[in-house]
Amino acid sequence: MALGVIYTGEPEAAIKDFVKLLMKHKDIQGAVIPVKMEREGSYAFVFTKSPEVVDKSSPIAPVMPVQGARVLSKLTKRKPLTKPAVAVLKPCEVRAARELSKINQVCMESFITVSFDCPGVYPTKSFLKNADALEEEFKKGLKGLSVSGVRPLCESCTYFTGEFADFEVQFAGINEVRIIARSQRAEAILKGLGKAEEVEERDKKAIEAVLEARKKAKEALKTEFAEKVSTPEKLLSVLSSCINCHNCRSVCPICFCRECFFDSDSLKTPPHLYLERASRKGGLRFMPDTLLFHLGRMNHMSLSCVSCGTCEDACPNMVPVSRLFALVSERTRAIFDYVPGIDDRPSPFLEYREEELEEYEMPYYEARS
Amino acid sequence: MADKEFTPKVFYALCAWCGSGGSETAGAYWLKYPENVRPFRVMCTGALDSAYVLRALIEGADGVAVSGCHPGDCHYNIGNFRARRRIAVMKEILNTFGIDGDRVWLRWVAHGEGKKLADTATEFTEHIKKKGPSPLKRWDT
Predict the structure, then answer these.
(1) Domain boundaries, position A292
(2) Average pLDDT of the residues in B50-72
């Protein structure tokens, strides 16, 4: 049992009603929520104070062109908000925001997060080609969390419930919509609104089938996709269509650095050095440093990668970037037994232990005389 | 190529306080290490970003060794602990793509351990010789 509110009807309508209810609280100003754009039919986050805009919004958008954590980061980069705002986010956006708050890039106190059972999102490009039909299909598959043609990483996402937000919205596998307070702050707000009831939590069995299917897809990613990039030759052929545009970096919620090493002047060398590199390697691919960019970025942020798939969505040339990063991040964070956005510990690069990882050091035996 | 023996290009990152000190001690005792090892000094192993190591591997080095102060001896207190985590992550990433994380070695060398430094340089060169040229020596990286 937990504190919460029960709604009947469609999940989206319930979330909208709930957000409007939260906005009536004296300590809450405004909401950050996805809204459908009129012309092209894509979706964008809107920061609003008016309940009418919330009425027009689509809390469970079928696409994710901008990662929500980036929105929160932008909003609170200079200062926290004077009073918190409601933020309706997908589970991976909540995880990314929590991860960013550890490195002081998002002020989580400024947001009351609401998250829900996520069926995944379509790749933006395929959605825009056939928006109306896909939207219908998305609405149909929403309650069963079975939507086909979603991002490859959404298919293998095992953290698809909103339990890490302040309010979790449960609707998959049950008849009504249960909104449950997951933090003390959320409970206090519900009490302040006089709406706190004891709500029974959803039985884990209700979403077990979905979880099993996703776990299977994740295993496939770890074995089949890993096989596709298991040697440098294969990796480079996967990266062959990369044009080094750094789009994946600029949409990544975790890549927050104001100046990136891979954009810096240290990679812009005078012409004779290009020639030298070319003669050393038998030629130089342009744009240069493509592999360095990807491997370097993996080193910098794979421990915090929440596997949201936004990078692949932004890639103009269909490089499977998100799968590469998800694969690598599965392996690197296993070293520290760390799950980004879920663990309360700081990111492994920010702390250390005095005795650990001896297996990565090279032992020395004084064999030589 | 078969008759000519493969001489690997080896980079050896030494921290300013212990690793470089080790090389000074090695010099003081006239210890020799292979000529193909190119030592370079960084202020601290914790300041050695993985991008530099990767850049060396991609631009022609066959192996990169890293030596800094023993755990607990870091001049900046925690630099080498951070370096260890960074190198662990890097090795795991290189292994994922079959680039072989064993081309990166981490071994602590104190200021007085001149012999350990010379031995590491020799041992690492032998190790890379057995492995052969780096698979990243390609034009299409």
Answers:
(1) 231-359
(2) 94
